[in-house]
Specification:
single chain, mainly alpha, Rossmann fold, two-stranded parallel ribbon, 3 helices, elongated
């Protein structure tokens, strides 16, 4: 996890997917342990699945899309706020420049 965080974008989204949930009798990692891991490392999502049976496969992709879409909306909202602040500043600058031009002519 340290390497992943160190070598990726700070806004990376990390999903923990436990596969082979259909092989309960061969389980190596308890679901509770995986949830604790997710919380300790502040991962975005955890789900157990089975590629063999298809259990939760679609759900994982839907949840990934939701997380990414929410992030996209927040990113755009932040950019709109930044743009408005920049526009206000540039309007003040333009007004000041216009007044200077009128005063010197």
């Amino acid at each position: 996890m340290k390497d992943l965080r160190a070598n990726s974008s700070p806004d990376i989204k990390i999903f923990l997917v436990g596969n082979k949930a259909d092989l309960e009798d061969q389980r190596v990692v308890k679901a509770e342990d995986a949830k604790k891991f997710m919380e300790n490392y502040e991962l975005n999502y955890f789900q157990e699945s089975s590629a063999k049976t298809g259990m939760n496969v679609e759900t994982i992709f839907i949840e990934a899309a939701k997380v990414l879409y929410k992030d996209y909306l927040e990113y755009n909202e932040d950019n709109k706020k930044k743009k408005k602040k920049t526009e206000k500043k540039s309007l003040i600058t333009n007004e000041t420049n216009v007044e200077k031009k009128k005063g010197c002519c």
